[in-house]
């Protein structure tokens, strides 16, 4: 019996969702085409170095998606579906007090964790859960109606959840069941053609477009699918040249002379898509909604917590300089601040323990002589080489920016009320599984590589 294993299921899941999204949102196809051109161009320009942060095969197939659910129960079910594809919750993001605009959700990302699994296919899904209990957005009456609406719908069928459970237990599925799992899981994230209750949708939309997108319709959907590029500045210009209007900015680190760190993202605005509405008089008619958009990203090296602190300080410094001098473009100010304060080389990031690397014994390591046990000396002496660990996660501020740049209405927030406490422990209870911390995942990878190096060099430890 041929078994489709977890890795292969994920490879196919990323591909079937990409086909679905391409059919539903044609501009996404353009984005994928332009991304492939940009990556090819980058490779031609930069040769072997181009694939330092991931092979072209990995980067070309690489996507992240985003979905939004309405309750802990829905989140728990989503976790079962994703686990069937070898994707586990990593990281906690509270977007409710995010600048520039608060969003009534808390989020995590489902993704593979092992280096080999990431290399095979790093598909990840940013998953947000509505917090209807949060009084800054919803009063008690609306909370109750939201919970009733969400409680009455089914996002994931019993058949899908049962197949997913078997895939988890067995590490894969035989061919016919694997096909069925993929079909049902993909369909669960398609845009529904069910008529939307217009009055209900508009009532939620006035408070938060994201609340309407989650609690105003009877199903969830992939709301963007993001390819990865090796040069996001090239991509931005190429898309504009094709007549697709991009948002004003590239979120995250600036375009600068030093190493690529963390994550840079940009997007084109949500497009109007035809949807059916049930009007107050009971008739059904066509209208449109702008909720789904195209996003693209470039990934760099993961930062340690010290590196993240520095990154946050630089963000704050950029904000500060812009308050003093608001006419200057963010990009320009950011470039200036980074040039002053961010280490200009990967080597420097490594030495100062600001970024994560894996280590290996150099192929041309010198023989004989006394081996130092200090990592910096081992690298400087040519015994050990360091490779950057790619940042596989998200940035809360960019996420909030991505949400906000695609909302038209401002929404309403009652600042007088207190927010409902929701932290990572709470979300773990809701999901029923531990959430991994990104920094711990990277640190474990780093440590594992150091253990191998120490063994290879016959050292007691590094
Ligand atoms: C998720 C927005 C966050 C990202 O790339 O930061 C995100 C959403 O719009 O539901 O996908
Ligand atoms: Ni995204």
TrEMBL record:
CDD domains: VOC_YdcJ_like. Keywords: Dioxygenase, Iron, Oxidoreductase. It comes from the Bacteria. Pfam families: HGLS (PF07063). Its EC number is 1.13.11.93. InterPro entries: HGLS, YdcJ_bac-like. SMART domains: DUF1338. Its cofactor is Fe(2+). Belongs to the 2-oxoadipate dioxygenase/decarboxylase family. This is 2-oxoadipate dioxygenase/decarboxylase.
